[in-house]
């Protein structure tokens, strides 16, 4: 996208009363944010689900293009990229969720955003030495798997230890921020952030404008992005209520596998994890082998797994095409259709054949995964 196009995207994203879903709806009909800006009342009001309030909000916001231009310049000055829903670099996992933001800010190379295996590790800000130890041991074992990267929220406690351990064991790590990327919050984590920004796979992302402060409502919103970016979520320590449990609940709503590290029944920092297990909102985590079993991950190389899978089942060209996509991460049939360009009726038949061959299985939420 050109600089001018990005400025129009920033303008659209900043309009009061318009969220990610509405932005996507507008773009699907008008093709670009610039076209939205240039549209009349008559053009806008006829778009499905765009009523009078949103139409007037768009028309009344046309004077704010200068603000969007300043925001773009501020991002450029701070080595921050702006990615919209239509950009190829936009995280694929995030794009799958209906409540995904239309626009995100990215600092650093952040190649892990679209990596093959992303694990979110979250927990209490008041984590104990035991919590830090468990976090480090989990990441040490995960580092034996090919393509694993760590997602967390850069907060005190479990989050920051997850980022630091990931860097120590040469894994990519993404920090999802509840504030704008002009500054680091908490400031004490600046050194770790510098290390993340120097690593090719690591970086920071946020849906908030560059100068946004980390106020309370932004943290639950941030947690949904952590859950969306991950293939699976591990809660290490958590009180009865807290941000880590919000992340776990959102991950469940996205049909992601959630794991919780159990603890003593007398320990307040174990109550949240124990309740997740008790109420069947999370698998009990005892070792990384639990993740390998549930996620169908292997310590062998992805290429060798894929070749043996195709040879063993004698898959057709189309079946191989489908399987390669599902191998990257589990998907619903609609998303598989988009990526393969196979018509839905034919795709449904092919998926059924793959199920009968024992290659794929259908999980909760109508998500297909490798068997």
Question: What layout of secondary structure does this protein have?
Answer:
Blueprint: H1 3-13, H2 20-30, H3 33-37, H4 41-45, H5 52-60, H6 65-77, E1 80-84, H7 92-95, E2 103-107, E3 117-122, H8 129-142, E4 148-152, H9 158-168, E5 172-176, H10 190-198, E6 203-206, H11 218-229, E7 232-235, H12 243-253, E8 257-260, H13 268-278, E9 283-284, H14 288-295, H15 302-313, H16 317-328, E10 331-332, H17 333-340, H18 344-356, E11 360-363, E12 367-370
Helix pairs in contact: 1-6, 8-9, 11-12
Task: Describe the protein in words.
By secondary structure, this protein is an alpha/beta fold. It has 18 helices and twelve strands. The strands form two sheets. The protein has a nine-stranded mixed beta sheet, sandwiched between helices. Helix 10 links the parallel strand 5 and strand 6. 43% of the residues are buried. About 2% of the residues have low confidence.
What labels describe this entry?
Rossmann fold, 3 domains, nine-stranded mixed sheet, 48% helix, Arc Repressor Mutant, subunit A, alpha/beta, single chain, DNA polymerase, domain 1, three-stranded antiparallel sheet, 371 residues
Oligomeric state of the chains in view: single chain
Name the CATH architecture of the largest domain: 3-Layer(aba) Sandwich
Total of DSSP H or I helical runs spanning 4+ residues: 18
Mean pLDDT: 91
- CATH fold label of the largest domain: Rossmann fold
The description of the largest β-sheet is: 9 strands, mixed
What portion of residues is helical?
Answer: 40-55%
Low-confidence stretches: 301-307
Any idea what the radius of gyration is?
A: 21 Å
Distance between the termini: 39 Å
SS strand fraction? 5-15%
Biggest sheet strand line-up: 1-2-6-5-4-3-7-8-9
Order of helices and strands: HHHHHHEHEEHEHEHEHEHEHEHHHEHHEE
Based on helices, strands and strand pairing, what is the structural class?
alpha/beta
Number of domains: 3
CATH class of the largest domain: Alpha Beta
The global form is globular
């Amino acid at each position: 996208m050109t600089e001018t196009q990005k400025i129009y995207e920033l303008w659209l994203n900043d309009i009061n009363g318009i969220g990610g879903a509405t932005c996507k709806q507008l773009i699907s009909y008008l093709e670009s944010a610039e076209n939205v800006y240039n549209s009349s009342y008559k053009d806008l009001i006829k778009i499905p689900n765009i009523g009078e309030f949103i139409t007037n909000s768009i028309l009344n916001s046309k004077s704010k293009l200068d603000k969007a231009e300043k925001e773009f310049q501020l991002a450029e000055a701070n080595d921050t990229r702006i990615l919209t829903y239509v950009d190829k670099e936009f995280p694929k996992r995030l794009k799958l969720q209906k409540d995904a933001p239309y626009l995100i800010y990215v600092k650093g190379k952040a190649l892990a955003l679209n990596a093959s295996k992303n694990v979110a590790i979250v927990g209490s800000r008041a984590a104990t030495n035991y919590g830090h130890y468990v976090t480090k041991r989990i990441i040490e074992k995960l580092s034996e798997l090919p393509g694993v990267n760590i997602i967390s929220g850069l907060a005190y406690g479990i989050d920051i230890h997850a980022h630091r351990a990931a860097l120590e064991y040469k894994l990519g790590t993404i920090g999802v921020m509840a504030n704008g990327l002009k500054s680091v919050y908490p400031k004490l984590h600046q050194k770790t952030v510098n290390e993340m920004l120097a690593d090719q796979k690591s970086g920071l992302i946020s849906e908030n404008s560059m100068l946004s402060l980390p106020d309370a409502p932004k943290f639950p919103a941030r947690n949904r992005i952590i859950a969306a970016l991950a293939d699976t979520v591990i809660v290490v320590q958590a009180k009865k209520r807290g941000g880590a449990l919000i992340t776990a609940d959102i991950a469940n709503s996205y049909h992601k596998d959630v794991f919780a590290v159990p603890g003593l029944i007398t320990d307040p920092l174990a109550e949240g994890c124990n309740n997740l297990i008790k109420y069947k909102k999370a698998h009990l985590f005892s070792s990384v082998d639990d993740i390998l079993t549930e996620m169908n991950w292997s310590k062998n190389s992805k290429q060798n797994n894929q070749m043996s899978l195709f040879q063993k089942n004698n898959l057709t060209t189309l079946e191989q095409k489908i399987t390669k996509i599902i191998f990257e991460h589990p998907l619903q049939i609609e998303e598989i259709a988009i990526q393969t360009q196979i018509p839905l009726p034919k795709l449904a038949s092919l998926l059924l054949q793959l199920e009968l061959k024992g290659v794929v299985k259908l999980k909760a939420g109508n998500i297909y995964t490798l068997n």
